[in-house]
Specification:
This protein has helices at 17-22, 36-40, 57-68, 79-84, and strands at 9-13, 29-30, 48-53, 74-78. It is of the alpha/beta class and 96 residues long. It is globular, with a radius of gyration of 12 Å.
């Protein structure tokens, strides 16, 4: 719903890159959780951040990190829940 609502939205996969390459939500970018605090400095604060990971713990943690960094609108989406709703996944693109 957030992605379809317009505005600045960034879907970020926070699992290690090898997991992202195997399967992710379409249009997700890969920012492994360990890199997130530094990378958040390059993202405008008015961006709605949606974090994804396979089961949920990393994406939940990423949302908390983003909120502590001053982002007002964050949420998370476990990929397993995404797939349970019949939504598509795809392999991620290697970034390096």
């Amino acid at each position: 719903k957030q992605m379809a609502g317009g505005g600045k939205v960034m879907l970020t996969h926070v699992d290690p890159e090898e997991n992202y390459i195997k399967e992710t939500i379409p249009d997700a970018v890969s920012i492994p959780l360990a890199e997130l605090p530094e990378r958040l400095k390059t993202i405008p604060k008015d961006t709605t951040l949606i974090f994804a990971c396979n089961r949920g713990p990393r994406s939940s943690q990423a949302a908390k990190i983003a909120e502590q960094a001053g982002f007002k609108s964050t949420s998370f989406c476990p990929i397993v829940k995404w797939k349970e709703q019949g939504k598509p996944t795809q392999p991620g693109k290697k970034t390096s």
